[in-house]
Amino acid sequence: MVELSSTTLAIVSVVVLLLILVLWFMTKKINKLNNDISRLNNEITAHEQQLKEVEKATRKDSTNRQRAILKGQISETLAPWSLDAVNSVKELSFLGNPIDFIGFKGLDGDGPIEIKFIEIKTGKSALTQSEKRVKKAVDAKRVEWKTIEVRDFPETVEK
Hints:
single chain; three-stranded antiparallel sheet; 2 helices; 3 strands; 53% helix
């Protein structure tokens, strides 16, 4: 058997002690990293769940909006037959933008007529800015008649 001097034993003991300390420190560091990985995985799972919920809510909102738009379009198509603003559908002229119809109540008869600006709304829909401006102009009686006569059309169009 080989005999080691006390200096060599002391050096070996210090090296072994240092190795034990390094292993202990690395074990603690690995445990901390594993805990961090677990925490981050939990956060990722929670965020994925939130994303799924937001996506589901967004799809539902989109579907509801599409249904509301479709309902509004159907209502605009069917509304003329149920309006009491005019006497018959023949007294309506469709504009579409910025308002849906102009009605000429009484036009089918010989008496005076009433001109009506008609906007069809369904559900929670509200007047747009343009529609509000048209309504204000009508309410303020800023409406006038214009006759535009076109007398001469050119025979040919020059290029």
